[in-house]
Give the backbone structure.
Amino acid sequence: MKEEPSFTIKQTAEQTGITEDTIRYYEKIALLPRAERKDNGHRIYRREDITTIQLIACLKKTGMPLEEMRPFLTVSADADPAEYPELVERLRSHREHIVGQIASLQQVVDFIDMKLEEGRYRQVCSDEAQESSQPISPVEMRYFPLSAKASK
């Protein structure tokens, strides 16, 4: 029978993109199980540990607090989600929160784009140019609904 490969903390950090200090911290707060140790005391990580660290990194990128991750980490990777309806609901709720953040950030990007676009056309500053009835962009209407209606 083939022995499962093991990895040092340095190799684990390289494979996961998580620093060695952070991996030790996750062990300290019991987000990760304590790593096995060699006779010399060095930590040994298995493929399953690397997968768990990658899951933590993924959830962390979504803004999920470490404490909220714990229930997700206790469920095995091949578990049927139907067996954990409360976790499915938490994940759906977290997803909706992220979708809201994305929409909010998209509005900021749209506003910045609009300002950048305006900046290109500010070469003419005469009253005549300002009074021209140029159509208002949908982006501007979204940010300035009152001024957009007033100018039409």
